[in-house]
Specification:
The chain is of the alpha/beta class and 190 residues long. It has a single domain, classed as Rossmann fold, CATH 3.40.50. The chain is 22% helix and 31% strand. Strands 3-2-1-4-5-9-8 form a 7-stranded mixed β-sheet. β6 and β7 form a beta hairpin. α1 crosses α5. The longest helix has 11 residues. The chain is globular and about 45 Å long.
Length: 190
């Protein structure tokens, strides 16, 4: 049975990933920096030494890469490639700053753009991290870099992913606006 590494899983399980991974055909291996969410493995995206070389068929990383500093992103992506099997692939999702900047240009920096299970999310939260969680001391939630769909795709290619496909995913923010999330899938080999 193929295994996917759920990087930055937080409290989520495979039923909160994608339809593709949320089947009996996939085994989930949960990986997080925060021990309190009880992952299978504890570590950081830049040091995944707890995961053996070429040991997972896929990686799912949703809203994690933006928590790294820009200089750490290539290091993390090299780790992704290291743990993937030769025919493995990664699915990476993050906020699309192009869409966030459109809301900021409309002077909506602190207005709720949408409501998540954690509460209202404003462009300010999308840029720097969810303020209520940061205020409670959860500094893992700070955003330190950002991507557009084009930049995410280029970053995966520069890291060594041989085949990259990107998708801008619409998410309704309000009755008058929509937000796009950048999602890219990268294959280790062509």
């Amino acid at each position: 049975m193929p295994t996917f590494l759920h990087i930055g899983c937080g409290p989520k399980r495979k039923d909160q990933t994608t339809r593709g991974f949320n089947t009996d055909a996939w085994t989930e291996l949960r990986f997080d920096i925060d021990e309190s969410v009880k992952p299978d493995l504890v570590g950081t995206m830049t040091d995944m030494s707890a995961v053996a070389d070429a040991s997972v068929d896929a990686i799912f990383s949703s809203h994690n890469i933006e928590h790294l500093y820009p200089h750490e992103v290539p290091v993390a992506l090299k780790e992704f490639l290291r743990v993937l099997k030769p025919d493995g692939f990664a699915v990476i999702t993050c906020p699309d700053l192009l869409s966030v900047c459109k809301l900021i240009a409309e002077d909506k920096l602190t207005e709720a753009a949408y409501t998540a299970p954690a509460g209202p999310i404003a462009p300010l939260d999308i840029l720097y991290g969810h303020r209520p969680q940061l205020a409670r001391g959860n500094l893992y939630m700070a955003h330190r870099c950002g991507f557009t769909q084009k930049v995410l795709t280029g970053t995966l290619q520069a890291a060594g992913f041989q085949s990259v496909a990107a998708l801008a995913r619409a998410v309704r923010l309000s009755s008058t606006s929509g937000r796009w999330r950048a999602r890219a899938s990268g294959a280790k080999t062509r």
